[in-house]
Amino acid sequence: MRWRDVKHNKIIKKNQTESGQKIASIPKRIKAFLVDMFMINMPILYIAVYLVLDGKENFQQNPIAIFVCTMLFGIIISTLLFKFAQTPGYKAYEIKLVHAKTKNGVGFFRCFFRFLCFIVSGAILIGLISCFFRKDGKNLHDLLSDTMVVDI
Fold first, then answer.
1. Please, are residues 74 and 99 in contact by the beta-carbon 8 Å criterion?
2. Please, what is the end-to-end C-alpha distance for the chain in angstroms?
3. What distance in Å separates the CA atoms of residue 113 and residue 88, rounded to the nearest whole number?
4. What is the SS3 assignment for 118?
């Protein structure tokens, strides 16, 4: 067993916070994200493409519709994380979002800021792969919003 650090006379294991919560693994977080995409974002996109607009071509040529769908997804995700600290994907894989310092729930605006940071970090790609180079496994959007995903 590898020990990462000793802080405040406590021995802290790798991938574990000072309060003893285990940081969620990268595969769990990826799977949870995919579940959320299919359960939340796909219905939004289906409604926008086939009920509001007249097919895929109109949707692809309409940046306002793409923006509205993305923001609606972000608002729903942020609301779920604010109210329950979990999305359907997080619940399925038994993980939750907490504030990095207080280990408590996260406010709506911090959750929405985290979503916006996720969009930006996904666009530059460095933010999404940063978790593979950090000992704590945090992505750029977690660092900027001061949050972390832990096992329940």
1. no
2. 22
3. 20
4. helix
